[in-house]
Amino acid sequence: MANAAASATPAPRARVQAMMEYHPPLGSRDALRLDFNENTLACSPKVREVLGSISAGSLTRYPEREPVEAIVAAHVGVRPEQLALTNGVDEAIHVLFETFLEADDELLLPVPTYTMYEVYASATDASAVPVQAADDLLFPFERLIAAITPRTKIIAVANPNSPSGSVATRDELLELARRAPHAVLLVDEAYFHFHGETVIDLVGVVPNLVVARTFSKAYGLAGLRLGLLAGPVALMRWVRRVLSPYSVNSIALACLPPALEDTAYIDWYVGEVLVGRFDLEAALDNVGIRRWPSRANFILVDIGPQHREFVRLMRAAGVLVRDRSNDPGCDGRVRITVGTREQMKQAVTALNDAVAELRIGRSKQ
User: What is residue 364's predicted lDDT score, i.e. its pLDDT?
Assistant: First the structure.
């Protein structure tokens, strides 16, 4: 009896046992990483200078986020009390859901979209209500409006969306907020720089609007884990109760101001991606592979039944791409991150070779 008791392990709560699992694929340092939508090159040179100047002594102190939050707030045009820095945008989403979702609440989720929304919702007692986009993968505005109920507590909209690259218009987002005043409208602008349009100027004006951003994409700081939430003070005060005061580390806080200051680098990198996106679109059209219009730093393509073999061939050529076939409505579809124009030359060569070997697209005709 004693041995049986000793071998037993404490059980997690039922909600944790029922949670979705997420296992990101492992990459390769020697490959061109076009599978995670990160900056494919480097962070700003000014960030590297700061990294070289961080002293060992500074690491003995707990990080202080408020001074940097004030800098970031001024940069994006909100008040400091309307903004919180987070450990990546994932913590921002997690904390927002933990703050507002409870039993019998509903998270309204246009799909396909960022997987972690549903993962973090599954850690609460709320229900995720998927709203499927049509085959064109455009933002399902009318379907979302029709799905709003008194139980709707959060509506999560990635804008631009992943994996489709589609966008919701400013008017559509405003109408969603108006139709669901009892719910938080989360607009996740992770890919803002490649789209160029934002609703962060409406923070505090629209009482139920919260905007999330990440510094993992254009800024190239994915390894430092930095994100933000911006919203009305009345909502952010509750978010801050849930948010850990020390979740953003001191190295990340030291690197963020110079990253924001170096607008020339960001403008250059975004410009490279926009040219690279155009080049990849042209290459896909040339070989007859269906693609979806994208306002982000990636393109979703329809490979069909040979999607796994396509991903394998691209990997063998030193280019990693992301199979999205398990996403709702995305069977046979693969997402390709866009990097610099030079990187896309390598990607297009690998793409052309894979398409020819598999005899897909125009080559199958």
Answer: 66
Among 224, 163, 186, 258, CA closest to 39? 224
Secondary structure in 3-state letters for 132-179:
ECCCCCCCCHHHHHHHCCCCEEEEEEECCCCCCCCCCCHHHHHHHHHH
In this structure, the strands spanning 319-320 and 32-33 are parallel
- With a CB cutoff of 8 Å and minimum separation 6, the contacts of 225 are 87, 88, 91, 216, 248, 249, 252
- Strands of 5-94 (E only): list them: 32-33, 83-86
**What pLDDT score was predicted for residue 213?**
98
| Domains, the chain | 2-41+264-364 (3.90.1150.10), 54-261 (3.40.640.10)
Q: Average pLDDT by consecutive 10-residue portion of the chain (365 residues)? A: 65 81 72 96 97 94 97 98 98 98 97 96 95 98 98 98 98 98 98 98 98 98 98 98 97 98 98 98 98 98 98 97 97 98 98 97 72
179 neighbors 135 (Cβ within 8 angstroms):
no
Give the per-residue pLDDT at 365: 55
Kindly list the distances between the CA atom of residue 3 and the CA atoms of 8, 10, 12, 234, in Å, as whole numbers in the listed order: 9, 15, 21, 53
Could you tell me the CA-to-CA distances from 174 to 13, 150, 209 in Å, in that order?
A: 38, 18, 9
Residue 15 phi, psi dihedral angles, 5° rounding: -65, -40
Phi, psi values for residue 358, rounded to 5°: -85, -10
* Cβ within 8 Å of residue 288, ≥6 positions away: 361, 362, 363, 365
Confidence at residue 6, expressed as pLDDT on a 0 to 100 scale:
55
Neighbours of 303 (CB within 10 A): 23
